[in-house]
User: Fold this.
Amino acid sequence: MNVIWTDLLAAIALLLIIEGMVPFLNPRSLRQMLETVSQLDDRTLRMVGLISMILGVILLTIVR
Assistant:
């Protein structure tokens, strides 16, 4: 398999592991967080998503 695909699949696997930790370890807290997030307006959610993507690109640039 090409190195790029291997890296992509490894990144997706790590994402799934990290995303699965919160509901496994503390489902009540996850419910409360989702309730809070559902009350945010679209603009705020978009800004959080944009900031998250920018930080991810910066971190990836530093690591790579």
